[in-house]
Structures are given as C-alpha cells and as structure tokens.
Amino acid sequence: MTTMQDVARRANVAVSTVSYTLSGARPVAPETARRVRAAMEELNYQPNAMARGLASHRSHTLAMTFPRFDTAMGETVFEIVRGAQHEAARHGYSLAVWPLEETEAGAELVALVRQGKADGVLLVEVEVDDPRVAALKRARLPFVMVGRTADPTGLAYVDIDFERTVDDAVGELYCLGHRRIAFIGRPASQAETGYGPAVRGRQGYLRAMNNRALEPLAFHCDASPQAGQALARELAALEEPPTGVVVMNDMAALGLLAGLQAQGLRVPRDISVVGAVSSPTLGAMTTPALTTTHAPGERMGAFAARALLAILDEHLDPADCHQLVTCSVVEGESLGPAPGADLEGNHPREKSSS
Question: Is the pLDDT of residue 349 over 60?
C-alpha cells in the first residue's frame, strides 16, 4: 500500500509538505504542490481522512462508543447519536459509532485515538464503574461521557437526572392520592453490571418513597413485552396491588399495560401508569396512551459533541463541563386519581366499614 512517505520521496519533499498539501493547514508553493499531486497520481495514492488531518494531528473524527447489550437501544440513544452527529458535522467532523465488547473496550478506545482514527471519544451507556473511563483516564485521552460514573469529579459529562425524574413521577402519583406505588426498572443484569440508568433510577425511586414515608415495591424486569405481561400478572395477584406504577423500561411497558387490563385492572381507573425516561413514540402506541417523561436526547448529544470539540481545542477544562438534564412530561391517558382518593385532603379516602 502506498504511503505518504512514498509520495514525499517521489516528490522530493518532506512528509509534512505532503500533509500540508492535502489538508491546506499551511500554504504550499504552487510548484511544490504540483509535484506532490503528480507523485500521488503516479503512485495511485488515495488519501484518507487521517492523512488529510495529519498536519494538524487531527483525524476530524469523533468516536462514539457504547457496550453491546443483549437488549435493543432505546429511542433516547438514537436521539443522542443524531444530536452528536449534527453538532460534529457543523464543525467539520465526522461521527463514527463503535459498539465494543466490554472486556476489551478500554484498550480498543485507547488504540483508536493513538492510531489517529479518532481525535476523542464520546462514551454512551456509561456504567457507574466503567472500565472505558478508567482506561481513557490512564491514557490521558480526551473524552466526554453521556452518563456518569459513581464519582465523576473532574470528568466531562452530560446525563439525565434520573433521581429527579423518578422522584417527579412518584410525586405526580402521590399528588393524585396514590400511596401504593410500584417501580418497574431495567433488567437485573444491567443493575448487576452497574449500568447507570438502572442503578440511578432504582435509587431515585427508593429515595422518593422513603422521603414520603411510603413502602417501596420495586421490580427488575427484562426488556420485552412478554416480561411486562408476566409482571402485570404478578402485580394483580398481590394481596394489595399497587394503584400506581412508575415504569422505566419501554419494552416492558408495552406488555404491562396490556397485561394489567387482561387481569381486569382498568388503566387509569383502577391503576395508573407513568413511563419514566420513556419514549413518547412508544407511549402513543399503547392503549391507553402512556403518560411519559422524555429526555432531550438530541440536545444531550449535541452538548457532548460540542464539549469534546472544546476540550480538543483546549478551550474547556473537563472539570468545568457537567450538565444534568431534566425530562419533560408528555401527557397521555394512563394517569388518574387513586381509587377513592380525596384529592383536596391529598390522601385516599378511608373505606367505610359495613
């Protein structure tokens, strides 16, 4: 394969001159540039993005990486990718998406940057103890997290405020008179590996219930409609079923709503359901339409890309770059007062004995 060094030798110039001719980073004398291009043509040299950026030591590519999960990526992740891609393109950069096996992700990311295939890394689907973060920190390479570790001090990140989002969902149900409120979270496997949303969503729910002196009722659930239906049967079989449910698992939510109604529980008359960090698109597909809280994925992706570019240009200290975003409510038809609730008194009415 013909290299830039081969072109430099044929044109009798320095390698940096070939690089400047390709990138335009510095002026090159017309006669010299002509010799370089003639040598490229004679040798059939095909410059790539890395070659064009060599003079500035830039590939003009940002790597976005996420671990390979057994479950499908949600709509918010696709929005994050879209937002990052648009922002990168505005600054003349490409975005390359790299799904990596967790066991080798750290070493592969370091190699990507050191080999000049990417200038910096956007980490998506961050775990609270993420090996990718540790590897990039050790190598002193530029990166921004879409998510955050257990201790993100000194690191650049943008993340959903999961604790506040779930607390808001519990609070909405509480204000409608619900006191028996269940939480359906991510698969147990994600919680065990320390996947940030799975950990923080559950923590937020437990804190929200404790702050309101309510008994928690939390479940892990696989990300499938079938798992949601099975959990609906489990909830309906309880001696005292919940009157409100916060579900932070889109695929399970599909089955949950259908399953609750199959068990004779009317939504929202008998039981209310709200989707936390959920997809409005999915919410509109359910019957009744699911009330959701939706994260601004595109804005998060754009923020992350913009921050990484500023770090690359040394215009931003990673320690000064952190943002938690809140979710907006998308009204559906799955939320209502608790059965027998006295909303003026903000508590369920006591059933009269007979």
Answer: no
